[in-house]
């Protein structure tokens, strides 16, 4: 029997996790600056939560969900995105209560699951880092959150970023637009794809997002949602644009942009990159405002805003621009052992050095000293501590700084003493010094 990972999933070996840990921690540092807190949620939820939250007619729910019945006959799904779960947790844990500062700002990171055709940058288990803000419909929230997303990509030195924004308007504007869109599409009914025919009355906005070439040609001449915004929505969108200018964030308005999830209203946005090393017009971040979802999921009317970044695509983008990922750790010390007698002492020594704050590895499999030194080199160790039978007898150890080749014999009991930390810096300076 040969076991293989499931199609569309990936193993992350250390070379990869090094990059991911670095990327995640850099993003988390920025999230903290914007005063976000982390929330960790289950990867599976009631199927119905996603059907209601993401929308029955979305591709995600209608085609891509990993849904199943558990042994208790509960209809469940692996989460295809993060927002529905965060909204559920917000409602279930009564985060809307007065003891929570508003707006509430949460971020999450973790795996998402969609049954899609796997290809480069498209997995069945993929990862997102996302944010959600609850409790304010101030357009400044929209702008601060988009600024955060831009900051994240800029912090990695990604160039050629385009922020694309649009407004879907509030419920009243959307209803008016919906009618106009149905009116426009109905004469073309026979030419539409099967999906779009089905969506025409259920959710005509979806037709604008169709991947079908013929659909796309038809919707090119469709009326623009922006012409149907009422006064409130117009004002909201104008303020968003003004404040983007205030922060000197350049943007484009795409009046035909809709999003793959059904819950958005007013501001929606995508961040695209045209980085020549990555491929034209790739969406690397998407999000927007959703003021009805909390209520839809059973909470009090609460405005929301959020976005999600696909981490696979971000890491690929960074690889494409030859991003210089720093090594996570440099090994401070490698303990070379000569002979079986020193096994116990090597254990104690490595342990003591770690207590002093050093990053330490030791020999475990008793290879020839030359091999061990080569390993120390390969692991990029700063120093080698050599323990042999002779040293053990004298209660000493040899410490060698690999960069200068200088060495010194130390008393083991000095290393085990409380105050070794100070002495150690002195010794290091001596070994590093020129003379
Ligand atoms: P696409 O149009 O590429 O299918 P989407 O609109 O379905 O994207 P969202 O649901 O908005 O994507 O998710 C936000 C981000 O998550 C995307 O921009 C992308 O980077 C990432 N993403 C979405 N689906 C996948 C996937 N199957 N594999 C890897 N990353 C994904
Ligand atoms: Mg998709």
From TrEMBL:
InterPro entries: aa-tRNA-synth_II, aa-tRNA-synth_II/BPL/LPL, Anticodon-bd, Anticodon-bd_dom_sf, His-tRNA-ligase, HisRS-like_core, HisRS/HisZ, HisRS_anticodon. It is found in: Cytoplasm. Keywords: Aminoacyl-tRNA synthetase, ATP-binding, Cytoplasm, Ligase, Nucleotide-binding, Protein biosynthesis. The keyword Aminoacyl-tRNA synthetase applies. This is Histidine--tRNA ligase. The lineage of its organism: Bacteria, Bacillati, Bacillota, Bacilli, Lactobacillales. One of its GO terms (biological process) is histidyl-tRNA aminoacylation. It comes from Atopostipes suicloacalis DSM 15692. GO terms for molecular function: ATP binding; catalytic activity, acting on a protein; histidine-tRNA ligase activity; transferase activity.
